[in-house]
Write a structure and sequence with these properties.
Blueprint lengths: L1 H21 L6 H20 L7 H23 L4 H30 L27 H7 L1
Helix pairs in contact: 1-2, 1-4, 2-3, 3-4
């Protein structure tokens, strides 16, 4: 269930940005929807389930590269856009999606995949093992010499 919720949230923001940029070129809604679905599934399987284990920053950078590469290939070969438009639209769409991806990692991954973090060892709080000194531990003969 947690994977389905994560996929739905991810598909929503990927579809919004994909429709926003590719809608400028008057492509059919079904084509843009299919592109958003392919991007979402590939990014979730590769970026969130495999690469996210290396860290959130690594996953966001990998997602940007994945989005840019996939969008460039899809736009150039499937939509047959000129190369300059392909690179610009793929770059801006990837930037927008990657920005949302950072928020996605901060919210969804930590909210729905929290129990995966419970298996990690917790660091020991060393402040409770600190030594305390007081006057009772001082040598009584030293107090007499001070007076």
């Amino acid at each position: 269930m947690r994977h389905i919720i994560s996929l739905i949230i991810k598909f929503i923001f990927v579809a919004i940005f994909t429709f926003s940029v590719l809608g400028i070129f008057n492509f059919s809604i079904a084509s843009i929807f299919t592109t958003a679905l392919v991007l979402t599934l590939a990014s979730y399987l590769i970026g969130d389930l495999l690469i996210y284990r290396l860290g959130s920053v690594t996953a966001v950078v990998a997602d940007f590269i994945l989005y840019f590469g996939m969008l460039a290939v899809i736009e150039y070969f499937y939509f047959q856009l000129p190369l300059s438009r392909t690179l610009y639209s793929a770059f801006f769409t990837s930037v927008f999606i990657t920005g949302a991806e950072a928020l996605y990692h901060g919210f969804v991954i930590h909210r729905y995949f929290e129990e995966d973090d419970n298996n990690r060892p917790t660091p020991i709080n060393t402040s409770r093992y600190s030594t305390e000194f007081s006057e009772e531990l001082d040598n009584p003969s030293d107090k007499d010499n001070e007076k």
